[in-house]
Amino acid sequence: MHEDAPMGPLGRRRRMAGRYRQVAEVLGRHGFGLLVDELGLTRLRPWPARRAPDRELERRGARVRRALEELGPTFIKLGQILSTRPDVIPPDVFAELQLLQDRVPPVPFEALEPALAEALGGRPVAEVFDSIDPEPLASASIAQVHAAVLHDGTEVVVKVQRPGIHEQIETDLEALFGLARLAAGRISLPFDPVALADGFARAIRRELDYRLEGTNIERFQANFEGCPWVHFPRVYWEWSNRRVLVLERLRGLRPTDVEKLDQAGIDRALVARRGAQLFLKMVLVDGFFHGDPHPGNLYVEPGNRLAIMDFGIVGHVDAETAEGVANLLQALVARRPDQGVDALDALGALDPDTDAAALQRDLRDVIDRHYGRTLQEMALGETVQETMQLAYRHRIHLPGELFLLAKVLVGMEGLGRQLDPGFNAVEVARPFVRQLLVRKLHPVRVGRRLERDALEALRAWTRLPEEVAGLAARARRGRLRMQLEHQGLDPHSRRIERALRELGVSVVFAATLLTAALTLWIGKGPILWGMPVVTWLLLGLLAFLGTALFLSQFRR
Asked: Residue 374's pLDDT is what?
Protein backbone atom coordinates (compact mmCIF):
# COMPACT_ATOMS: atom_id res chain seq x y z
CA MET A 1 0.00 0.00 0.00
CA HIS A 2 1.27 3.50 -0.82
CA GLU A 3 2.00 5.36 2.40
CA ASP A 4 -0.52 8.11 1.52
CA ALA A 5 -3.27 5.66 0.52
CA PRO A 6 -6.36 6.02 2.73
CA MET A 7 -6.83 3.34 5.38
CA GLY A 8 -10.22 1.78 6.01
CA PRO A 9 -12.04 2.45 9.31
CA LEU A 10 -11.38 -1.06 10.64
CA GLY A 11 -7.67 -0.93 9.77
CA ARG A 12 -7.35 2.51 11.31
CA ARG A 13 -9.02 1.37 14.57
CA ARG A 14 -6.73 -1.65 14.78
CA ARG A 15 -3.68 0.51 14.16
CA MET A 16 -4.71 3.04 16.81
CA ALA A 17 -5.50 0.32 19.37
CA GLY A 18 -2.10 -1.25 18.74
CA ARG A 19 -0.33 2.08 19.20
CA TYR A 20 -2.18 2.84 22.46
CA ARG A 21 -1.16 -0.62 23.71
CA GLN A 22 2.50 0.10 22.84
CA VAL A 23 2.37 3.43 24.66
CA ALA A 24 0.85 1.83 27.77
CA GLU A 25 3.42 -0.98 27.76
CA VAL A 26 6.41 1.32 27.30
CA LEU A 27 5.25 3.77 29.98
CA GLY A 28 4.64 0.93 32.41
CA ARG A 29 8.00 -0.67 31.66
CA HIS A 30 9.78 2.60 32.46
CA GLY A 31 8.11 3.04 35.82
CA PHE A 32 5.05 5.13 34.89
CA GLY A 33 2.35 2.59 35.67
CA LEU A 34 0.55 5.07 37.91
CA LEU A 35 0.32 7.50 35.00
CA VAL A 36 -1.09 4.72 32.81
CA ASP A 37 -3.71 4.05 35.49
CA GLU A 38 -4.63 7.74 35.73
CA LEU A 39 -5.07 7.90 31.96
CA GLY A 40 -7.42 4.90 32.10
CA LEU A 41 -5.18 2.69 29.95
CA THR A 42 -4.47 -0.05 32.52
CA ARG A 43 -6.45 -2.69 30.58
CA LEU A 44 -4.02 -2.27 27.65
CA ARG A 45 -1.05 -3.48 29.71
CA PRO A 46 -0.15 -7.19 30.05
CA TRP A 47 -1.80 -8.70 33.14
CA PRO A 48 1.42 -9.46 35.12
CA ALA A 49 2.64 -5.90 34.57
CA ARG A 50 -0.61 -4.49 35.99
CA ARG A 51 0.07 -6.19 39.30
CA ALA A 52 3.74 -5.22 39.58
CA PRO A 53 4.53 -2.00 41.46
CA ASP A 54 6.42 0.79 39.71
CA ARG A 55 10.19 0.48 40.06
CA GLU A 56 12.35 3.57 40.06
CA LEU A 57 15.68 2.14 38.97
CA GLU A 58 16.93 5.53 37.70
CA ARG A 59 15.99 9.17 37.89
CA ARG A 60 12.58 10.26 36.59
CA GLY A 61 14.07 12.41 33.84
CA ALA A 62 16.17 9.54 32.46
CA ARG A 63 13.13 7.24 32.47
CA VAL A 64 11.09 9.82 30.53
CA ARG A 65 13.89 10.17 27.97
CA ARG A 66 14.29 6.41 27.48
CA ALA A 67 10.53 5.95 27.10
CA LEU A 68 10.35 8.65 24.41
CA GLU A 69 13.31 7.14 22.54
CA GLU A 70 11.67 3.71 22.60
CA LEU A 71 8.34 5.07 21.33
CA GLY A 72 9.96 6.29 18.14
CA PRO A 73 10.30 9.36 15.91
CA THR A 74 7.15 11.28 16.81
CA PHE A 75 7.77 10.99 20.54
CA ILE A 76 11.46 11.82 20.09
CA LYS A 77 10.43 14.99 18.25
CA LEU A 78 7.95 15.73 21.03
CA GLY A 79 10.74 15.43 23.58
CA GLN A 80 12.94 17.75 21.53
CA ILE A 81 10.16 20.35 21.42
CA LEU A 82 9.60 19.98 25.18
CA SER A 83 13.34 20.45 25.73
CA THR A 84 12.78 24.09 24.77
CA ARG A 85 9.81 24.56 27.16
CA PRO A 86 10.99 24.89 30.77
CA ASP A 87 7.64 26.53 31.56
CA VAL A 88 5.76 23.20 31.30
CA ILE A 89 8.45 20.63 32.19
CA PRO A 90 9.93 20.06 35.70
CA PRO A 91 13.64 21.00 35.89
CA ASP A 92 14.89 17.40 36.28
CA VAL A 93 12.99 16.19 33.21
CA PHE A 94 13.90 19.33 31.24
CA ALA A 95 17.62 18.71 31.80
CA GLU A 96 17.38 15.07 30.70
CA LEU A 97 15.46 15.88 27.52
CA GLN A 98 18.50 17.83 26.31
CA LEU A 99 20.18 14.40 25.91
CA LEU A 100 17.56 12.86 23.60
CA GLN A 101 19.18 10.83 20.82
CA ASP A 102 17.68 10.65 17.34
CA ARG A 103 20.05 8.17 15.72
CA VAL A 104 18.68 4.89 14.37
CA PRO A 105 20.07 2.16 12.08
CA PRO A 106 19.73 3.14 8.40
CA VAL A 107 17.32 1.51 6.01
CA PRO A 108 18.75 0.11 2.73
CA PHE A 109 19.09 2.77 0.04
CA GLU A 110 16.76 0.72 -2.19
CA ALA A 111 13.90 1.48 0.22
CA LEU A 112 14.38 5.21 -0.40
CA GLU A 113 14.51 5.01 -4.21
CA PRO A 114 10.71 5.29 -4.80
CA ALA A 115 10.58 8.67 -2.99
CA LEU A 116 13.71 9.83 -4.80
CA ALA A 117 12.30 8.75 -8.19
CA GLU A 118 9.14 10.77 -7.48
CA ALA A 119 11.22 13.89 -6.73
CA LEU A 120 13.17 13.36 -9.98
CA GLY A 121 9.96 13.26 -11.99
CA GLY A 122 10.31 9.59 -12.78
CA ARG A 123 13.80 9.98 -14.26
CA PRO A 124 16.39 7.32 -13.38
CA VAL A 125 18.74 8.27 -10.55
CA ALA A 126 21.73 7.78 -12.85
CA GLU A 127 20.36 10.40 -15.23
CA VAL A 128 20.60 13.13 -12.60
CA PHE A 129 23.46 11.98 -10.38
CA ASP A 130 26.84 10.83 -11.57
CA SER A 131 27.10 8.90 -8.31
CA ILE A 132 25.24 8.54 -5.04
CA ASP A 133 26.65 6.85 -1.96
CA PRO A 134 24.31 4.14 -0.62
CA GLU A 135 25.89 4.51 2.83
CA PRO A 136 24.27 7.51 4.58
CA LEU A 137 26.18 10.44 6.00
CA ALA A 138 23.54 10.62 8.74
CA SER A 139 20.58 8.46 9.73
CA ALA A 140 17.76 9.75 11.93
CA SER A 141 14.28 8.46 12.69
CA ILE A 142 12.61 10.58 10.00
CA ALA A 143 15.19 10.83 7.19
CA GLN A 144 18.59 9.78 5.90
CA VAL A 145 21.20 11.97 4.24
CA HIS A 146 23.30 10.62 1.36
CA ALA A 147 26.25 12.16 -0.44
CA ALA A 148 25.97 12.47 -4.22
CA VAL A 149 27.72 14.07 -7.20
CA LEU A 150 25.99 15.73 -10.16
CA HIS A 151 27.18 15.11 -13.71
CA ASP A 152 28.97 18.50 -13.73
CA GLY A 153 31.04 17.43 -10.71
CA THR A 154 29.08 19.45 -8.11
CA GLU A 155 28.92 17.74 -4.72
CA VAL A 156 25.45 17.65 -3.16
CA VAL A 157 23.64 15.96 -0.29
CA VAL A 158 20.30 14.22 -0.74
CA LYS A 159 17.96 14.23 2.28
CA VAL A 160 15.26 11.55 1.87
CA GLN A 161 12.46 10.68 4.28
CA ARG A 162 12.07 7.09 5.39
CA PRO A 163 9.28 5.08 3.77
CA GLY A 164 6.02 5.06 5.72
CA ILE A 165 7.10 7.86 8.04
CA HIS A 166 4.12 10.12 7.22
CA GLU A 167 1.62 7.38 8.03
CA GLN A 168 3.44 6.53 11.27
CA ILE A 169 3.58 10.16 12.41
CA GLU A 170 -0.10 10.80 11.62
CA THR A 171 -1.05 7.70 13.64
CA ASP A 172 1.14 8.89 16.52
CA LEU A 173 -0.33 12.39 16.38
CA GLU A 174 -3.83 10.98 16.61
CA ALA A 175 -2.73 8.91 19.60
CA LEU A 176 -1.12 11.98 21.19
CA PHE A 177 -4.31 13.99 20.82
CA GLY A 178 -6.23 11.14 22.44
CA LEU A 179 -3.77 10.98 25.34
CA ALA A 180 -3.88 14.79 25.69
CA ARG A 181 -7.67 14.76 25.94
CA LEU A 182 -7.51 11.98 28.56
CA ALA A 183 -4.92 13.94 30.55
CA ALA A 184 -6.97 17.15 30.36
CA GLY A 185 -9.99 15.38 31.85
CA ARG A 186 -8.22 13.26 34.48
CA ILE A 187 -4.98 14.96 35.61
CA SER A 188 -4.35 18.42 37.02
CA LEU A 189 -1.57 19.99 34.93
CA PRO A 190 -0.07 23.52 34.86
CA PHE A 191 -0.69 23.73 31.09
CA ASP A 192 -3.28 22.79 28.48
CA PRO A 193 -2.16 19.39 27.09
CA VAL A 194 -4.50 19.61 24.07
CA ALA A 195 -3.11 23.02 23.07
CA LEU A 196 0.42 21.69 23.51
CA ALA A 197 -0.37 18.68 21.29
CA ASP A 198 -1.88 20.99 18.68
CA GLY A 199 1.21 23.21 18.59
CA PHE A 200 3.45 20.15 18.33
CA ALA A 201 1.40 18.71 15.47
CA ARG A 202 1.75 21.93 13.49
CA ALA A 203 5.52 22.03 14.13
CA ILE A 204 6.24 18.43 13.11
CA ARG A 205 4.07 18.67 9.98
CA ARG A 206 5.99 21.76 8.93
CA GLU A 207 9.27 19.97 9.54
CA LEU A 208 8.11 17.08 7.34
CA ASP A 209 7.64 19.40 4.35
CA TYR A 210 11.11 19.94 2.90
CA ARG A 211 9.79 22.66 0.59
CA LEU A 212 9.47 24.83 3.70
CA GLU A 213 13.04 24.02 4.71
CA GLY A 214 14.25 25.09 1.26
CA THR A 215 12.28 28.32 1.55
CA ASN A 216 13.86 28.94 4.97
CA ILE A 217 17.33 28.62 3.44
CA GLU A 218 16.55 31.15 0.73
CA ARG A 219 15.13 33.58 3.28
CA PHE A 220 18.37 33.40 5.28
CA GLN A 221 20.34 33.94 2.08
CA ALA A 222 18.32 37.09 1.38
CA ASN A 223 18.76 38.38 4.95
CA PHE A 224 22.55 37.96 4.73
CA GLU A 225 23.01 39.00 1.12
CA GLY A 226 26.37 40.71 0.72
CA CYS A 227 27.81 39.20 3.92
CA PRO A 228 31.02 37.45 2.77
CA TRP A 229 31.71 35.42 5.90
CA VAL A 230 28.54 33.30 6.07
CA HIS A 231 27.64 30.48 3.66
CA PHE A 232 24.18 28.97 3.22
CA PRO A 233 23.79 25.97 0.86
CA ARG A 234 22.18 26.29 -2.56
CA VAL A 235 18.81 24.55 -2.95
CA TYR A 236 18.34 22.42 -6.08
CA TRP A 237 14.60 22.90 -6.47
CA GLU A 238 14.39 20.93 -9.73
CA TRP A 239 15.06 17.68 -7.82
CA SER A 240 13.37 18.50 -4.49
CA ASN A 241 9.83 18.10 -3.19
CA ARG A 242 8.22 17.78 0.22
CA ARG A 243 9.98 14.45 0.96
CA VAL A 244 13.31 14.93 -0.80
CA LEU A 245 15.71 17.87 -0.49
CA VAL A 246 18.83 18.21 -2.62
CA LEU A 247 21.35 20.77 -1.36
CA GLU A 248 24.86 21.93 -2.10
CA ARG A 249 27.28 19.93 0.05
CA LEU A 250 29.13 22.07 2.57
CA ARG A 251 32.61 21.16 3.73
CA GLY A 252 34.82 22.53 6.44
CA LEU A 253 36.06 21.94 9.96
CA ARG A 254 33.85 21.35 12.96
CA PRO A 255 33.96 24.35 15.32
CA THR A 256 34.62 21.98 18.24
CA ASP A 257 37.81 20.58 16.64
CA VAL A 258 40.10 23.25 18.08
CA GLU A 259 43.36 21.52 17.16
CA LYS A 260 42.47 21.24 13.47
CA LEU A 261 41.24 24.84 13.43
CA ASP A 262 44.60 26.01 14.75
CA GLN A 263 46.48 23.88 12.22
CA ALA A 264 44.41 25.44 9.42
CA GLY A 265 45.25 28.96 10.61
CA ILE A 266 41.66 29.78 11.63
CA ASP A 267 41.20 32.85 13.86
CA ARG A 268 39.05 31.21 16.53
CA ALA A 269 38.27 34.46 18.37
CA LEU A 270 37.04 36.03 15.12
CA VAL A 271 34.90 32.98 14.30
CA ALA A 272 33.37 33.06 17.81
CA ARG A 273 32.50 36.74 17.43
CA ARG A 274 31.08 36.23 13.95
CA GLY A 275 28.95 33.31 15.14
CA ALA A 276 27.44 35.45 17.89
CA GLN A 277 26.86 38.36 15.50
CA LEU A 278 25.19 35.99 13.06
CA PHE A 279 22.60 34.73 15.53
CA LEU A 280 22.04 38.09 17.25
CA LYS A 281 21.27 39.64 13.87
CA MET A 282 18.86 36.80 13.12
CA VAL A 283 17.03 37.34 16.40
CA LEU A 284 17.15 41.07 17.11
CA VAL A 285 17.29 42.50 13.58
CA ASP A 286 15.66 40.03 11.18
CA GLY A 287 13.19 38.38 13.59
CA PHE A 288 13.87 35.02 11.89
CA PHE A 289 16.44 32.65 13.37
CA HIS A 290 17.91 29.17 13.02
CA GLY A 291 16.38 27.08 15.81
CA ASP A 292 19.02 24.36 16.14
CA PRO A 293 22.54 25.85 15.87
CA HIS A 294 24.46 23.03 17.57
CA PRO A 295 28.06 22.30 16.43
CA GLY A 296 26.88 19.44 14.21
CA ASN A 297 25.06 21.97 12.02
CA LEU A 298 28.06 24.29 11.61
CA TYR A 299 31.28 24.23 9.64
CA VAL A 300 34.22 26.64 9.61
CA GLU A 301 35.46 27.19 6.05
CA PRO A 302 38.75 28.75 4.93
CA GLY A 303 38.89 32.51 5.45
CA ASN A 304 37.10 32.24 8.83
CA ARG A 305 33.76 31.76 7.05
CA LEU A 306 30.81 30.06 8.77
CA ALA A 307 28.72 27.50 6.88
CA ILE A 308 25.31 26.54 8.30
CA MET A 309 23.13 23.46 7.69
CA ASP A 310 19.77 21.93 8.68
CA PHE A 311 17.00 24.53 8.53
CA GLY A 312 14.02 22.40 9.53
CA ILE A 313 13.57 24.24 12.84
CA VAL A 314 13.35 28.04 12.70
CA GLY A 315 12.00 30.66 15.06
CA HIS A 316 10.09 33.88 14.40
CA VAL A 317 10.20 37.00 16.59
CA ASP A 318 8.06 40.04 15.79
CA ALA A 319 9.29 43.60 16.36
CA GLU A 320 7.53 44.06 19.71
CA THR A 321 8.82 40.74 21.05
CA ALA A 322 12.35 41.59 19.87
CA GLU A 323 12.10 44.88 21.78
CA GLY A 324 10.93 42.96 24.85
CA VAL A 325 13.89 40.58 24.54
CA ALA A 326 16.25 43.56 24.20
CA ASN A 327 14.72 45.14 27.33
CA LEU A 328 15.17 41.86 29.22
CA LEU A 329 18.80 41.55 28.10
CA GLN A 330 19.41 45.16 29.09
CA ALA A 331 17.90 44.53 32.53
CA LEU A 332 20.10 41.46 33.06
CA VAL A 333 23.24 43.28 31.97
CA ALA A 334 22.36 46.30 34.14
CA ARG A 335 21.68 44.04 37.16
CA ARG A 336 18.12 45.41 37.48
CA PRO A 337 15.66 42.65 38.46
CA ASP A 338 12.85 45.23 38.72
CA GLN A 339 13.37 46.16 35.08
CA GLY A 340 13.49 42.44 34.26
CA VAL A 341 10.01 42.00 35.79
CA ASP A 342 8.80 45.02 33.80
CA ALA A 343 10.25 43.51 30.60
CA LEU A 344 8.48 40.19 31.24
CA ASP A 345 5.27 42.09 31.98
CA ALA A 346 5.60 44.02 28.70
CA LEU A 347 5.98 40.68 26.90
CA GLY A 348 2.56 39.68 28.29
CA ALA A 349 4.06 36.96 30.47
CA LEU A 350 2.50 37.95 33.80
CA ASP A 351 -1.11 37.41 34.77
CA PRO A 352 -3.07 38.82 37.75
CA ASP A 353 -2.06 35.85 39.91
CA THR A 354 1.69 36.32 39.38
CA ASP A 355 3.49 37.38 42.56
CA ALA A 356 5.66 40.14 41.08
CA ALA A 357 7.63 40.62 44.32
CA ALA A 358 8.53 36.90 44.54
CA LEU A 359 9.45 36.85 40.85
CA GLN A 360 11.71 39.87 41.35
CA ARG A 361 13.45 38.12 44.28
CA ASP A 362 14.08 34.99 42.20
CA LEU A 363 15.29 37.07 39.28
CA ARG A 364 17.70 38.90 41.60
CA ASP A 365 19.05 35.51 42.74
CA VAL A 366 19.66 34.51 39.10
CA ILE A 367 21.48 37.77 38.37
CA ASP A 368 23.54 37.63 41.58
CA ARG A 369 24.57 34.05 40.85
CA HIS A 370 26.18 35.16 37.61
CA TYR A 371 27.25 38.64 38.60
CA GLY A 372 29.28 37.43 41.52
CA ARG A 373 31.90 37.00 38.80
CA THR A 374 33.43 39.67 36.61
CA LEU A 375 31.49 40.96 33.62
CA GLN A 376 33.90 39.13 31.34
CA GLU A 377 32.99 35.84 33.03
CA MET A 378 29.24 36.42 32.79
CA ALA A 379 27.31 33.65 31.02
CA LEU A 380 24.59 35.62 29.23
CA GLY A 381 22.95 32.57 27.65
CA GLU A 382 22.79 30.68 30.94
CA THR A 383 21.35 33.75 32.66
CA VAL A 384 18.60 34.05 30.05
CA GLN A 385 17.86 30.32 30.24
CA GLU A 386 17.62 30.39 34.04
CA THR A 387 15.28 33.37 33.73
CA MET A 388 13.12 31.33 31.35
CA GLN A 389 13.16 28.43 33.81
CA LEU A 390 11.50 30.65 36.40
CA ALA A 391 8.43 30.29 34.20
CA TYR A 392 7.67 26.84 35.66
CA ARG A 393 7.72 28.09 39.25
CA HIS A 394 5.84 31.35 38.63
CA ARG A 395 3.51 30.14 35.85
CA ILE A 396 4.86 32.73 33.44
CA HIS A 397 3.20 32.47 30.04
CA LEU A 398 5.67 33.22 27.26
CA PRO A 399 5.51 32.31 23.56
CA GLY A 400 7.30 29.05 22.80
CA GLU A 401 9.58 30.96 20.42
CA LEU A 402 11.20 32.72 23.39
CA PHE A 403 12.17 29.44 25.03
CA LEU A 404 13.63 28.26 21.72
CA LEU A 405 15.50 31.57 21.60
CA ALA A 406 16.93 30.98 25.08
CA LYS A 407 18.20 27.59 23.94
CA VAL A 408 19.83 29.22 20.90
CA LEU A 409 21.55 31.83 23.09
CA VAL A 410 22.93 29.11 25.38
CA GLY A 411 24.27 27.16 22.40
CA MET A 412 25.74 30.28 20.80
CA GLU A 413 27.56 31.29 23.96
CA GLY A 414 28.80 27.78 24.72
CA LEU A 415 30.21 27.42 21.23
CA GLY A 416 31.81 30.87 21.45
CA ARG A 417 33.63 29.94 24.65
CA GLN A 418 34.80 26.64 23.16
CA LEU A 419 36.36 28.56 20.30
CA ASP A 420 37.70 31.40 22.43
CA PRO A 421 37.96 31.14 26.25
CA GLY A 422 37.91 34.95 26.41
CA PHE A 423 34.67 35.21 24.43
CA ASN A 424 32.23 37.67 26.01
CA ALA A 425 28.65 37.48 24.75
CA VAL A 426 27.65 40.65 26.61
CA GLU A 427 30.09 42.77 24.62
CA VAL A 428 28.92 41.28 21.32
CA ALA A 429 25.24 41.71 22.24
CA ARG A 430 25.46 45.32 23.43
CA PRO A 431 25.50 47.06 20.01
CA PHE A 432 22.54 44.93 18.83
CA VAL A 433 20.52 45.73 21.95
CA ARG A 434 21.42 49.42 21.64
CA GLN A 435 20.46 49.44 17.95
CA LEU A 436 17.11 47.85 18.73
CA LEU A 437 16.32 50.31 21.53
CA VAL A 438 17.30 53.28 19.37
CA ARG A 439 15.09 51.91 16.59
CA LYS A 440 12.28 51.71 19.12
CA LEU A 441 12.58 55.48 19.66
CA HIS A 442 12.65 56.36 15.95
CA PRO A 443 10.08 59.14 15.29
CA VAL A 444 8.16 56.99 12.80
CA ARG A 445 7.78 54.13 15.29
CA VAL A 446 6.95 56.52 18.14
CA GLY A 447 4.35 58.13 15.88
CA ARG A 448 2.79 54.76 15.11
CA ARG A 449 2.61 53.90 18.81
CA LEU A 450 1.04 57.29 19.55
CA GLU A 451 -1.51 56.78 16.81
CA ARG A 452 -2.36 53.33 18.14
CA ASP A 453 -2.62 54.58 21.74
CA ALA A 454 -4.78 57.51 20.66
CA LEU A 455 -7.16 55.25 18.72
CA GLU A 456 -7.42 52.86 21.68
CA ALA A 457 -8.10 55.78 24.01
CA LEU A 458 -10.75 57.12 21.62
CA ARG A 459 -12.47 53.73 21.43
CA ALA A 460 -12.42 53.44 25.23
CA TRP A 461 -13.80 56.96 25.55
CA THR A 462 -16.69 56.27 23.16
CA ARG A 463 -17.55 53.08 25.08
CA LEU A 464 -17.34 54.78 28.47
CA PRO A 465 -20.94 56.14 28.65
CA GLU A 466 -22.35 52.73 27.71
CA GLU A 467 -20.13 50.95 30.28
CA VAL A 468 -21.07 53.44 33.03
CA ALA A 469 -24.76 53.09 32.19
CA GLY A 470 -24.42 49.30 32.39
CA LEU A 471 -22.72 49.48 35.78
CA ALA A 472 -25.38 51.88 37.07
CA ALA A 473 -28.17 49.58 35.88
CA ARG A 474 -26.56 46.59 37.58
CA ALA A 475 -26.15 48.63 40.79
CA ARG A 476 -29.84 49.60 40.74
CA ARG A 477 -30.84 45.96 40.37
CA GLY A 478 -28.51 44.99 43.22
CA ARG A 479 -26.33 42.85 40.96
CA LEU A 480 -23.10 44.81 41.25
CA ARG A 481 -20.55 43.15 43.50
CA MET A 482 -16.98 44.23 44.11
CA GLN A 483 -14.22 42.25 45.77
CA LEU A 484 -10.76 43.75 46.31
CA GLU A 485 -7.70 41.81 47.44
CA HIS A 486 -4.42 43.65 48.07
CA GLN A 487 -1.68 41.08 47.48
CA GLY A 488 1.54 42.12 45.83
CA LEU A 489 -0.32 44.99 44.19
CA ASP A 490 2.27 47.74 44.53
CA PRO A 491 4.52 46.79 41.57
CA HIS A 492 1.49 46.47 39.31
CA SER A 493 0.04 49.76 40.57
CA ARG A 494 3.22 51.61 39.72
CA ARG A 495 3.27 50.15 36.23
CA ILE A 496 -0.41 51.00 35.71
CA GLU A 497 0.17 54.57 36.93
CA ARG A 498 3.12 55.01 34.60
CA ALA A 499 1.20 53.54 31.65
CA LEU A 500 -1.77 55.84 32.31
CA ARG A 501 0.48 58.90 32.49
CA GLU A 502 2.16 57.96 29.21
CA LEU A 503 -1.21 57.28 27.61
CA GLY A 504 -2.47 60.70 28.69
CA VAL A 505 0.58 62.41 27.26
CA SER A 506 0.22 60.35 24.08
CA VAL A 507 -3.40 61.40 23.61
CA VAL A 508 -2.55 65.08 24.16
CA PHE A 509 0.40 64.72 21.74
CA ALA A 510 -1.82 63.20 19.05
CA ALA A 511 -4.53 65.86 19.52
CA THR A 512 -1.95 68.67 19.41
CA LEU A 513 -0.38 67.21 16.28
CA LEU A 514 -3.80 67.09 14.58
CA THR A 515 -4.60 70.68 15.65
CA ALA A 516 -1.23 71.94 14.40
CA ALA A 517 -1.85 70.30 11.02
CA LEU A 518 -5.29 71.92 10.81
CA THR A 519 -4.01 75.42 11.66
CA LEU A 520 -1.29 75.06 9.04
CA TRP A 521 -3.82 73.93 6.45
CA ILE A 522 -6.30 76.75 7.25
CA GLY A 523 -3.50 79.37 7.34
CA LYS A 524 -5.49 82.00 9.29
CA GLY A 525 -4.08 84.51 11.80
CA PRO A 526 -0.68 86.25 12.14
CA ILE A 527 2.11 84.68 10.04
CA LEU A 528 5.67 84.15 11.32
CA TRP A 529 8.36 82.72 8.99
CA GLY A 530 5.74 81.38 6.61
CA MET A 531 3.49 79.67 9.20
CA PRO A 532 0.71 80.87 11.51
CA VAL A 533 1.92 81.85 14.99
CA VAL A 534 -0.59 79.39 16.50
CA THR A 535 1.07 76.57 14.56
CA TRP A 536 4.48 77.58 15.97
CA LEU A 537 3.07 77.52 19.52
CA LEU A 538 1.54 74.10 18.97
CA LEU A 539 4.82 72.80 17.54
CA GLY A 540 6.58 74.01 20.69
CA LEU A 541 4.08 72.07 22.80
CA LEU A 542 4.67 69.02 20.60
CA ALA A 543 8.42 69.27 21.17
CA PHE A 544 7.86 69.39 24.94
CA LEU A 545 5.48 66.40 24.92
CA GLY A 546 7.73 64.43 22.57
CA THR A 547 10.70 65.01 24.89
CA ALA A 548 8.63 63.79 27.85
CA LEU A 549 7.66 60.63 25.98
CA PHE A 550 11.25 60.08 24.84
CA LEU A 551 12.61 60.34 28.39
CA SER A 552 9.86 58.03 29.71
CA GLN A 553 11.23 55.22 27.54
CA PHE A 554 14.50 55.33 29.49
CA ARG A 555 12.70 55.23 32.84
CA ARG A 556 11.07 51.89 31.99
From this structure: 47
